[in-house]
Structure formats: structure tokens, C-alpha cells
Design a protein that fits this description.
alpha+beta, five-stranded antiparallel β-sheet, 5 strands, 47% helix, rod-shaped
Length: 154
Amino acid sequence: MREVKKSLFINEQGLTLVEVLASIVILSIVLISFLMVFIQTIKTNQKSEEIIDATYLAQREMERMYDLSRELEVSKRPEWFIEENYDHRPSMDNWEVFSRSEEGTAYKIEVSWTDKGDQMTRIIIKVYDSNESTEPKAQMENLLKWRTDDEVSP
């Protein structure tokens, strides 16, 4: 029995170079796959954060338009945009287009004056990364009723 135990200890030579390389390759494949998942998660989180930020900016601008519809008379709408440093492009198909840039973000506001006593206004707000961007990061649309020139502010 003693001889059997000695022979077992004597024949044990440790890991071969091939076994070590195979284990390193397997570990590398597993780690690289986990790393790719983490990188994709980080990219998705960054994209989601950009969209949330742009949506917040569009919502803020839409709330500004809503407040404006409660305070400003119908006849003063176009002048207000110009006073607030919006660039005005000529109207296209009953749409007025106003745009402005602020801290690396570009806003484009499309306004359609409707025929119901000129009080209803359809507004589309688009938020871009910059003036050069063609695809908006966020977009909101609303129909607002503007107060008339003879109404008193609430």
C-alpha cells in the first residue's frame, strides 16, 4: 500500500504548458464576452440619458409656449418669437418656423396658425444636438388655445 501511495506522488508532475494556455484562452473568451456586454450597456445608458435630457428640454420649451399662450395676445405671437432671439424662416404650407440655439442645443419650433378665430395654434417642438444635426433627439406636439386681444390676463 505504501508503494502505491509513493507512485501516485511521484507521477504527479503539475500542469503542462498546453493546459495553462488552454485555460488562459477560455478565461479570455469569457472575460471578453462579459466586457462586450458591459460596453453595450454603457452605450445604451448614454443614449437613453441623451434622449431623456432632450425630452426634458422639449417639455420645458412646450411649457414655455403654454405659459405664453395664457399671457400673450394672439396678435403679438410672431413678434414674441423674434424678441426672444428666435431665427425666423419664411412660412411653408401655413407653418412658421422659428429656431434658436442655446448651450450646444438647437431648438426648432414649427407653428401653424389655424383658422378658428386665429386662437388655436398647433406647435411642434424639435430638439437637436446642434444646428448641424438633421435628426431630432426629441419632439413634442401640442394644440394650444391662445387668449384673444380683448381677454384679460388670468
